[in-house]
Amino acid sequence: MTRSICVIGNLNVDLVMGTLAHWPEPGTETFLDRCDLRPGGSAANTALALQRLEHPAGLISAVGSDPLADILAARFSGRLDRIRRLDGQTGISFGVLHDGAERSFLSFGGHLAALDLAMVEALLEGWPLEDALVLVAGGFATPGLAAEGEALLTWLRRAGAGIAIDPGWPDGGWTPATRAQVMGWAALSDHLLLNDKELTALAARPEDDLAAAARSLSDGLPERCHIIAKRGPRGASCWQGGRVCHASAPPTAPFDTVGAGDAFNAGYLAAIAEGAAPEAALGRGCATASRLIAEFPRGTGPLADRWA
């Protein structure tokens, strides 16, 4: 039986433009060749990819009260989507693409600061959480929700859901307090989804010591927790208990890598929800991400038939 996926977290507008070799001098104007205005945020990116994989899923989030909110809400009007309208400006991120598939962001949080535990619990009323798989994504982009992260995950566990988290990169860096906070979330989770730099930073290990970092984290987490390292063109790895598995990434021609890790999350979790083993799920995640980062602007058509 296929499990539904509930995605909780940040939804904002992404304005992605490129490519830019060097930041312009103050007071000047630079024209770029390509532009894409679309829903963004870690949680929303994953929910959009799940839509394209045609997997039963819904996004739990909020938008502001300006015209940008209408653009976002229109993409999340399905049976399992729950989007709250809030007073104020909708959050927006301006992403600049550079040569070599690198990117830089300028972000305004806007409405995201108001998303909290009470709001999420209200939005989830009637949502079929029993035996669903829940992803809490972009935790540090929603500070109100992050402050109550353990309470949220405990509530979801009591509702009978499996839990995955992708906290992202903390704005203030990986301090001892931030590491302790994320480890508290991970202890309540079944899947900890990080990129390789996040994993080594969380474990306070050098970036070239990924395996040791993962083993260090495993020692402090329940055996059920799958620690995932998203490694870009090098694929992905999973540590769970004493087991390790890897998957390679298919060849691709990346142009817009914004949301690559979120697309991986969608493919990986869809496979897990369908009963796949971790290695197969890693492969599905890599395939989904590889396809999406070659698109610009991002498409909306189905992806399910392409990964069979």
Automatic annotation (TrEMBL):
Carbohydrate kinase PfkB domain residues are: 3-292
Q: Has the keyword Isomerase been applied to this entry?
A: no
Q: Which UniProt keywords apply?
A: Kinase, Transferase
Taxonomic superkingdom? Bacteria
Under the heading InterPro entries, the entry gives: Carboh/pur_kinase_PfkB_CS, PfkB_dom, Ribokinase-like
Q: Which SUPFAM superfamilies match?
A: Ribokinase-like
Gene Ontology cellular-component terms listed: cytosol
Is Transferase a UniProt keyword of this protein?
A: yes
**Signal peptide location in the record?**
none
Molecular function in Gene Ontology = kinase activity
**Family matches, as Gene3D superfamilies:** 3.40.1190.20
Which Pfam families does the record cross-reference, listed alphabetically?
Answer: PfkB
PANTHER family assigned to the protein according to its UniProt record, in alphabetical order: RIBOKINASE, SUGAR KINASE
Protein name as catalogued: Sugar or nucleoside kinase, ribokinase family
Whose protein is this, by species?
Answer: Marinovum algicola
